[in-house]
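Input record (one chain):
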Amino acid sequence: MCGRVVQHRELSTYARELGINLSGQVPNAAPHYNGAPSQDLLVLRRDPKSGEGRLGLLRWGLIPHWAKDKKIAWKLINARCETVAKTPAFKDAYRQRRCLLPVDGFYEWKKIADVKQPFLIAMRSGEPFTLAALWENWKDPATGEWVRTFTIVTTDANELVAQLHDRMPVIIAPADRPRWMNPDEAPEDLLRPYPAHLMKMWPVSTRVNSPKNEDRELIEPIVLNDAAEQERGSGVPRANEAGAEPADSE
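The corresponding structure, as predicted from the sequence alone:
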């Protein structure tokens, strides 16, 4: 699964990475070092009328257009790629409303001794990347307000992430982004683990475990103590020296 992400760069950085002209669309996006479900994050979606890509703030946790209660969003923060085309909550959005979540990394956890230890996973290049997502428009029957929401599509973990969890978000490579966004395309072949050798990960503070914590220090590498490292036994390298490379799959 994917339950926490990092999206902390300037809006212009994501726009440049995605090839988007920000003219007329400048959402007030706060940096997220610990982005969590129910929060608003920057998402690239295809405008239904113009067909152009638009960056805007959408709430994490999908509410299908037919839902009567917004609480369903807590159950729909992820969509499994194996069933996304058939599951009632996702099939319409998968067919018509695929989108991209630009991020700088995502978190995953591993139980080490008695500690739920978070790791940050990112690109080896340090560049932002995009997660496969789906979006929906839902009208709140109580207020009449239209709410845009999204979910992240997941797949089997690659060799790197598998050291922590058996699932990971689907990562859409730059060359494949137009296909993913185009409702006339069949993107099933894109629903696969991203190559592990292009990624890296490192242990971070357990302050990440609470979404109430939100600051840049959360993404900095930490030193795992020897007892925790022995308990871990996963082959994940340590990020334990000043200037050391964050841990990765090699």
